[in-house]
């Protein structure tokens, strides 16, 4: 009995110390306002329990508190969120704020130490090695694969003309095929077989990650092990890693044989291959390191791009004047050419502006954050060790200081002379600074390929009674689909 009392006293003492430490922590963050109705210790978590809650609430907190405010999501997650472009520049360029926030840990079992989730020291090494894989001459070689998959997408959509369709499932299967072919040199034919084990496993792992974000129990690594999702994740990750490992082993053997028989090197010092995996093999990374980077490209390169393409098509359906202007540009550049070339895609300036304006309104990565490992000051305001600093991209892109009539879809905002008037950190769909998206040029090229093909082949019409319900599901999506209607162009 005596031991029980001692244990009880120790537990009570630890709880009281934790409460005291939290009070001190919050006191040190007093420079930043918090939203109305913020609960002690729980903060704002009860208002943000589903994927459709977080964005409208963050916009509400921004209105109540100003550009920079405290966001408390339970007893362990406290953020300084901001839509201030100057503050964002400080966050994204500070060498003290290089580590990604705790949320990225939910991806680690699948992505390991790939560029998205890697600690700063590993990230710096891999980033330097991998950057040549996204050289424009490498991207130029991928256009054939982009075009062929976009043509399959057109074929699939041709079966659904003059009907209301949720465009997102069609696009996401196309981008999955593209990223598999360009990253690993293999096709899983997702567009032809959307119930294949690989496609289903990819959907499952993304769903499991989303479940962890919105569950206080699953956010805890200890408690997560007692949930069904934990065991589901182990099974799904084991399968996905087995697939990737097998492909790496096969390609390593092919790479070795080809290197012995075909030593030709092009003028940027890279053997004439198209695949991201082949390039990683040249860099001397281990199998696990290569697997992590390939899986990271898979994750970052298909769902985000699918979101961007789908929302762009939705915006075009509701802005026919923009769509007509875009069609005229595409028709004038391509003429009678069947497949666009890399250089023709670069000529499509209005298409680039359309995509950027869509990324402004519907950024696939609508927020991201960094962990604070030592006290940091910005404008004499303390951000204490243990906090997180978050960039609310969706809100930043709607700041009227940078964008007049911010809710309107106006691609002309991204004419060069207009862009030069704004802070470079007022538009960050691919992040910015040191840990910006390494694949942003590939993403833009993928978007151009799909949108160009669709606009060239179809008129995109609105479905006014089915407006998207914006949802944060690891990336920005619509919980009720993204509906459009297609009409075949004559």
Automatic annotation (TrEMBL):
CDD domains: CYP4. It comes from the Eukaryota. The keyword Metal-binding applies. Keywords: Heme, Iron, Metal-binding, Monooxygenase, Oxidoreductase. Its cofactor is heme. Belongs to the cytochrome P450 family. This is Cytochrome P450 4d2-like. It comes from Nicrophorus vespilloides (Boreal carrion beetle). The gene is LOC108560228.
